[in-house]
Amino acid sequence: MNKAINKDQKLGDVISIFPDASKIFNEIKLDFCCGGHDNLGAALKEKGLNVDLFVEKLNDEYANFLESSKEYKDWRKAEPMELVNHVINTHHKYTFETLKEIDGLLLKILKVHFYNHGEELLKLHRLFANLKAELEEHLVKEEKNVFPLIEDYFENKNENKRIKLVQLIESLEAEHDGAGNILKEMEELTRDFTVPEGACTTFKLVYNKLSELEKDLFTHIHKENSILFKMI
């Protein structure tokens, strides 16, 4: 019997087939968003994992996923602007709101816990400020420039518009990589967003929100890099 997932597929394609694979990839720190174009087998080898066993596990989990009848939207089959509107109303909305919330909370714990955890929190505060600025500017550029151009392209296709979009998309993907690199620095600094011993409730809340923001960004970037941009 043919398996839905094989080692020669790209990471982004695996997530498109089986969205819950994102949880499995997150557990082993496999970058399926900015690294969505990477080959599954090669990525697993780089992690020192048994490729065949891991792929078998993915297929078993995928079979369980299908049997569960869990509701799932295959965005590869959607119209481009349906996916664009979903990205704006779901991921962009969440990102703007969460960045604002974390910003205030992070400053609060920096003030309260400066003497005990100042070194870590100062670095984290600086990294988060960079991430916030990059993401906010990036999302605005998408909403005010790139997404309207995508809509125009699909309404009135021509090669000049496609070439312009491809150039803009290359720039967006580079910005995705930049945000991903900042997240990796934050992850390393905070021991995968693990709070220091004895941390207060707000401290835990900030690190949890940073972890959830990272997971949502992975899915968000995957939908753009591996699905939307491939439609152009």
TrEMBL record:
Residues 85-232 form the Hemerythrin-like domain. GO terms for cellular component: cytoplasm. Keywords: Cytoplasm, Iron, Metal-binding. It holds the Pfam family ScdA_N. It is found in: Cytoplasm. Coiled coil: none annotated. GO terms for molecular function: metal ion binding. NCBIfam families: FeS_repair_RIC (TIGR03652). This is Iron-sulfur cluster repair protein YtfE. It comes from Clostridium vincentii.
